[in-house]
Amino acid sequence: MTKLEIVQGDITQQPDIDAIVNAANDLLEPGGGVCGAIYRAAGVDQLDRAIKYLYEDDDGVSCLTGQCVHTPAFDLPNRFVIHAVGPIWPATPTAYDRLDDVRQLGMQQRRETAQRQLASAYSQSLILADVLGCKSVAFPAISTGIYGYPPEQAAEVAAEAVTKTVIETTPGIELVRFVCFDQNTEELLRSALVVSAVEVLFPSDNTDEQLTLPFPT
Ligand code: AR6
Known about the structure:
Layout: E1 3-8, E2 19-24, H1 33-42, H2 44-55, E3 68-72, E4 80-85, H3 95-99, H4 107-131, E5 136-139, H5 151-168, E6 175-180, H6 183-201, H7 204-212
Parallel strand pairs: 1-6, 2-4, 2-5, 5-6
Antiparallel strand pairs: 3-4
Bound molecules: ligand AR6.
Ligand AR6 binds at residues 10-12, 23-25, 31-35, 37, 86, 140-147, 179, 181, 185.
């Protein structure tokens, strides 16, 4: 059984965790927020060199949104950094939308895509950590900073994706820690985890079945 923990703190200060997750960008470049903190703590030059050495091809370095790659953690006290690319929240119609009707998906569909990509960033990180033999993983609140994903919705997606993945796919992971930078994120995640745990353990599909079961006469 996997233990899920929520703490308030800094993702770079989790010495008892095997793999910490970076809220990366799709070019895997050093950035601000969590990404900047992780690069500084790991050592900017060595992390940057590792990324290029491991993942550069003729088109440069990139990682699809919703996917992840890993590097050593270098000067961080962890074994690995998993660089997961969360989605940018589609907030307002862009010039691109107005110009290109044919390829325009519509705001609702783009938000649904972002939701799937965010869930994937969490579940793929856990699957990769499991493949790497990690027993513990720490996540920041991916996409809720510079990428603008609304924190409440992001907490629901994170809670559901992690709960489902550890139960269905990566039971070998013993500890998942959500490291929240502020109290609001922590509270949102705490509520979302309670809801998703109940939903995963008692799926609503079964409720009707249970209610309509014939009673013995
Ligand atoms: N530890 C834990 N959480 C943190 C820390 C920290 N040290 N620092 C910030 N947060 P963000 P994103 C919280 O912007 O939205 C980067 O430039 C923060 O308060 O780091 O996925 C990348 O390179 C927020 O709740 O990630 C990308 O270009 C959450 O972590 C882009 O930003 C995520 O904020 C990714 O944006």
